[in-house]
Design brief:
61% of the residues lie in helices and 3% in strands. It has 264 residues and is mainly alpha-helical.
Length: 264
């Protein structure tokens, strides 16, 4: 039987340096494969991607075990949690892996709620669906952060970095060349600056003085009185008091303003 890789699961896999991969290959060649590769019923690799690649390159038949899952979400959850157990990952790499897990936990909780109406139990576990109250979503975040081995605060900051930071900053975090606290601080500072700029650029509406308001009201009254007289040109019959630029009649100009109780 031939094993195969699932591109979706490969995206969740923490990168291994060439040096680390070479050491893994050397270990398998010299001492054999200590741990079996975990696959699903379709023989897709769930855990042990690097071991599988090493065996392929060494032309060694890999040892594997088949795990069955009732739900694809449970299968993906297994893949993520298996990767979270890697000891060499830094905090940002752990958060990157755990963020999809947060959505999976919420989706699973929602399915359980739909099946058995066990909303109270799910909420106690912190597995809240998207439409749950904020406090239950907070519990879900706390649960996933704990599985990732980071604090809730670090998890939330890392999640915000994933949404807002540049790819260059993310790569620095993966390589340990920057800290979550520093990059998060820069994002927060940039956001505050942008907000202030947007507020400053908003046009300032000119407030009318009481005299201007009174003048427009009196003008409107005068124009309405003139309109009621139904003045028109005695030569051609066209309505008088037509705008020389847009050629709208007085009636057209007054109608929308009357309906909105606005001034001319």
């Amino acid at each position: 039987m031939s094993l195969r890789l699932n591109p979706e699961y490969e995206k969740l896999l923490p990168k291994m340096s060439e040096e680390e991969f070479s050491e893994l290959k050397a270990s398998i060649q010299a001492e054999g494969q200590y741990y079996p590769i975990i696959v699903n019923e379709d023989l897709e690799v769930l855990d042990g991607h690097h071991r599988y690649r090493a065996c392929v390159e060494l032309d060694i038949e890999p040892d594997f075990e088949v795990h069955k899952f009732e739900d694809k979400l449970l299968e993906k959850k297994f893949v993520i949690e298996a990767n979270l157990r890697r000891r060499h990952l830094n905090n940002f790499q752990l958060v990157e892996l755990a963020v999809p897990l947060l959505e999976i936990e919420k989706a699973l909780a929602k399915k359980r709620q739909a099946k058995g109406g066990k909303n109270g139990r799910n909420q106690q576990l912190g597995l809240a669906p998207d439409d749950a109250e904020p406090e239950f979503k907070a519990k879900a975040t706390e649960l996933v952060a704990k599985k990732a081995g980071v604090s809730t605060r670090t998890f939330e900051r890392g999640k915000k970095i994933m949404e807002k930071a540049s790819e260059d900053d993310k790569q620095k975090l993966r390589e340990g060349k920057a800290s979550i606290a520093k990059v998060y601080s820069e994002i927060a500072s940039s956001g505050n600056t942008q907000t202030k700029k947007e507020v400053a650029e908003q046009p300032v509406l000119k407030q009318e003085s009481p005299l201007e308001v009174q003048n427009k009201a009196e003008l409107l009254t005068l124009l309405e009185r003139m309109l009621k007289q139904e003045l028109f040109c005695p030569s051609c019959g066209n309505s008088m008091f037509e705008c020389s630029k847009c050629h709208k009649t007085l009636h057209e100009l007054l109608k929308p303003k009357n309906s909105e109780n606005a001034s001319v």
